[in-house]
Amino acid sequence: MDLTLPPEDLAWKARAKAFAEGILFPHELELETAGKLPRATKDALRAAVVEHGFNGVNHAREVGGQGCTQMQQTLINEELGKATGALWAVVWHPAVPLKHGSAEQIRDYLTPSCLGRRRACVAVTEPDTGSDTSLVKTTARRHGDRYVIDGEKWFVTSGDEADYVIVHALVDGDPALPTLFLVDRDAPGVSIKREPKFTHTYVFGHPELLFERVEVGADRVLGGVGQGLELTKDWFVEARLQIAANCLGAAIRAFELANDWAGRRVQFGAAIRRHQAIEFMLADMAVEIMAAKSMIYRVAWEIDQGIERKIAHARASVIKLHASEMAGRVLDKAVQIFGGRGYMRENPVERLNRDVRVDRIWEGTSEIQRMIIGGQLGKRGTELFTGWYQPPA
Ligand SMILES: Cc1cc2nc3c(=O)[nH]c(=O)nc-3n(C[C@H](O)[C@H](O)[C@H](O)COP(=O)(O)OP(=O)(O)OC[C@H]3O[C@@H](n4cnc5c(N)ncnc54)[C@H](O)[C@@H]3O)c2cc1C
């Protein structure tokens, strides 16, 4: 069994580490203190993403991306996930459903997004629609060959920064016709209703967006009328894989910092790591990280081997659930090991502790991941989780 990573994968990881430490980390405190970064800094970061070749890592070279494998993306996201304030988000991943766009949509939306000239956000959640996406109320009423969209979307990550929105709406209000629409942010009728504050400091906002009689042509339907739920599922799977890798990175950074501190901080005549309570915390962190990394890399490898889509979906839930909960436990211990210093915002551990909390909520809460896993267990049996994937010979 060969578990070695090929040199090109290691090279991506090393470059991502250098990018996180050299380009993202220096902005962490400024972001935390001011709550946002100045426009000029965000523009410089956008240019740096292209300069360092991290634009569109999740898309093919033919459409302007980097054509990275799932394993390469995982290694990159692990390194970027170490940055606080979700600075990893400056490295854009144009939403995967865009792959299903028409030739014109790929030209006008996907390619410019990979190149960093455009930026998308995805709007599914609504005031009455959270975990249960079948409750979407946003409608797209047909008027001849055009659609008129009305609705309210919540928590739209990067909705303040994006220049277009992938809107999940029901055609003619029909629950059987969930559909994705590409809506330009500056289209008449699109507005920001509110920009709430959240637990974490995040490099972009999560505004509430209003769509009031927003007219779009039929050419703005992404992937076909009625395909919305299926495409949104693809987005969830990709996002869950990314979250798992980001959580792994966050946990590793906190572990390294806490381990270092435990060796330097002396109380009661000894470095605190010599007190077994602290040593055991560090040991548990090591085990948690090792287990999570093994799972996450395995699933990335399986996806690269062409594992069936439904199995990938189940596996993405497993690693999202495990990694986000693991990160919560590891970060909590890291804060404890730092004592009062772990509660200071200038400490990356304090910031990461707040940052990883949302990973148990967005892109499907931990309870929803358990529902998916439980559902698959009922349909396919235990082998799906206890077995080992064998690529076809
Ligand atoms: C910072 C942030 C950014 C976000 N970004 C985006 C974005 O870009 N685009 C977007 O569309 N959405 C986004 N979201 C929304 C996010 O995906 C939802 O918050 C999440 O899916 C949960 O929905 P909800 O908040 O309505 O909670 P609810 O669905 O109301 O759930 C509340 C609680 O009930 C539990 N629950 C619900 N149903 C069940 C069940 N059947 N069994 C057991 N427990 C259940 C949940 O697990 C949770 O604990 C974002 C959210 C946050 C906080």
Describe the structure.
With 393 residues, this protein is an alpha+beta fold. The protein contains eleven helices and ten strands. The chain has helices at residues 7-24, 28-34, 39-51, 70-80, 103-115, 228-264, 276-304, 309-338, 348-355, 366-380, 383-386, and strands at 120-123, 139-143, 146-153, 164-171, 178-184, 190-194, 208-217, 221-222, 266-267, 270-271. Helix 6 (228-264) packs antiparallel against helix 7. The relative contact order is 0.10. It binds flavin-adenine dinucleotide (FAD). The site of flavin-adenine dinucleotide (FAD) has 21 residues, from strand 1 and helix 10.
Strand content: 5-15%
Low-pLDDT residue intervals, each spanning 5 or more residues: none
The structure class reads alpha+beta
Cα gyration radius (Å):
21 Å
Q: What's the total helix number?
A: 11
How many beta-strand segments? 10
Gross geometry: globular
Features:
393 residues, alpha+beta, eight-stranded mixed sheet, two-stranded antiparallel ribbon, 11 helices, binds flavin-adenine dinucleotide
Structure summarized in a few sentences:
The chain has eleven helices and ten strands.
Give the SSE layout:
Layout: H1 7-24, H2 28-34, H3 39-51, H4 70-80, H5 103-115, E1 120-123, E2 139-143, E3 146-153, E4 164-171, E5 178-184, E6 190-194, E7 208-217, E8 221-222, H6 228-264, E9 266-267, E10 270-271, H7 276-304, H8 309-338, H9 348-355, H10 366-380, H11 383-386
Parallel strand pairs: 1-4, 2-4
Antiparallel strand pairs: 2-3, 3-7, 4-5, 5-8, 6-7, 9-10
Helix pairs in contact: 1-4, 4-6, 4-7, 6-7, 6-8, 7-8, 8-9, 8-10
This protein binds flavin-adenine dinucleotide (FAD).
Flavin-adenine dinucleotide (FAD) is lined by residues 121-125, 130-131, 155-157, 198, 206, 358, 361-365, 367-368, 371.
